[in-house]
Amino acid sequence: MAKKTGRRSGGGSRFAVLSRGLRRERGKMNRTETKYANELEARRLAGEVANWWFEPMSLRLSDPDTGQPARVTIDFMVLMPDGLTYLDDVKGTGPDDPASLVRMKWAADRYTLWTIRLVKQQTAKAGGGWSVREF
């Protein structure tokens, strides 16, 4: 009888197997981001928003001596007609991710040129729409 190694077929550790499907391809929107993009486009056509971009940049949050720096990829950059620019991180209806909140606060402290916001989709029971939290 062969000895079990703790690895599943297909290679990789069990943690890699558990995380499959959680990572998404850069540049592709999920359903929540698509819904928010549709709203931004409608607001742009109505003249409420000058322009918007999806995943326009990744902000470096730390400069470690070794290893990879901490980064946050902005979901949407929204340019308002008056020149104000928002960097929006869009989240679904699930519970808040503490790590995401820390990254947003950290980015807001480091990059004061922009207003960084967490835009969270509201459930239909809560009235729908979006809640916006500025950092």
Plain-language structure description:
This protein is α+β, with helices and mostly antiparallel strands and 135 residues long. The protein has a single domain, classed as Trna Endonuclease, Chain: A, domain 1, CATH 3.40.1350.10. Helices cover 25% and strands 24% of the residues. It contains three helices and seven strands. Strands 1-4-5-6-7 form a five-stranded mixed sheet, sandwiched between helices. Strands 2-3 form a two-stranded antiparallel ribbon. The protein starts with 13 loop residues before the first helix and ends with a strand.
TL;DR of this structure?
The chain has 135 residues and is α+β, with helices and mostly antiparallel strands. The chain has helices spanning 14-19, 31-45, 98-110, and strands spanning 51-54, 58-60, 71-73, 76-79, 85-91, 115-121, 130-134. It has one domain (29-134): Trna Endonuclease, Chain: A, domain 1.
